[in-house]
Amino acid sequence: MTRRSVLTGSGSALPRRALGNEELAKMVDTSDEWIVERTGIRNRYIAAPDETTVTLATVAAKRAIEAAGIDAKTIDLIILATATPDQTFPASATLVQHELGCNGGIAFDVAAVCSGFLYALGIADSMLRTGMANRALVIGAETFSRILDWEDRATCVLFGDGAGAVVLEAREEDSVQPRGILATRLHADGAHNHLLFVDGGPSTTGTVGKLRMRGKEVFRHAVTNLADVLVEVLGDAGLAIEDIDWVVPHQANARILDATARKLGLAPERVIVTVDQHANTSAASVPLALDTAIRDGRIKVGDLVMLEAMGGGFTWGASLLRM
Length: 323
Ligand code: ACO
Hints:
The chain is of the alpha/beta class. It folds into two domains: 172 residues, Thiolase/Chalcone synthase (Peroxisomal Thiolase, Chain A, domain 1), CATH 3.40.47; 143 residues, 3-Layer(aba) Sandwich (Peroxisomal Thiolase, Chain A, domain 1). Helix content is 32%, strand content 27%. It is built from ten helices and 13 strands. The strands form four sheets. A five-stranded mixed sheet has the order 1-7-6-4-5, sandwiched between helices. The protein has a four-stranded mixed sheet with strand order 8-13-12-11, sandwiched between helices. It starts with a strand and ends with a strand. The mean pLDDT is 97. The protein binds acetyl coenzyme *A. The site of acetyl coenzyme *A has 24 residues, from α2, α6, α7 and β12.
């Protein structure tokens, strides 16, 4: 018998306000045509003052718990991936825990920016397999609109707010095709801080800061790193690209998704794309896209699904699971 982390439910949440390209073009010097051509983005959601990373995360978590059909009180581990927490401390995960009424278990945040959900998933999987916990909630939630420079058209058009969550349960899986997380690889390379960062922080400026990015360089690294880590994970699992039913990539830019798929020889029909509607929601983007494809019936129990992401740091990673 092998103890594995099985995904038993997913959920997501978006702010009430949708902001389309046409409306955005009235606020900054840009156009629907430029944004669609360079990024594939048509729409994003922007949090109102009463919508925060924690409120979005809590709604996504409740939907995931409902989909899993479990009692929230049985959750003994919450990991929340975010770069936009409600407070510098305590961890937003503890606030979500309190909202859900499962006080007493483990709860903490993970900061790996757009790869945060992959990092959180990898940590949760390790903790479940070693028996430190039995039922985990892994959440990616962000309010990037709060750290955007709304005068910088090269970055503010790319991001949106949202949250996604999954329930992972430790189960003994001994079938030939076991359900659960099969392989994960995570990486970081701190040499690239200057290409994608926030120009503030509690210990430096004492401010929150704004997102800064050198888009072209990020683009280049993203395609290489994502293709490489996906091949690594496939190698660990002893599988080939043709074996995968679905790839759920970090939704940064449609051109990054296309270029990565081309590099890997992956059929575009097998790539879940939500960047057109949600834009880049950082740590929320993979679980948001995953939940969208589970709820619309594309991803089903038994499917082999590859999740992958890359973000500031740089950090990047991929995880293969059987639903
Ligand atoms: N509207 C209109 N024009 C714009 C806009 C805009 N929103 N933004 C930039 N421009 C202009 C620039 O000023 C420049 O004008 P110039 O030629 O007169 O100087 C021109 O468009 C080209 O600018 P570039 O930055 O060279 O445009 P590029 O083709 O590289 O596209 C983009 C920019 C979309 C950011 C691209 O580099 C990219 O997608 N990079 C990946 C970054 C990314 O996705 N980051 C997300 C976080 S990391 C991650 O999640 C993987």
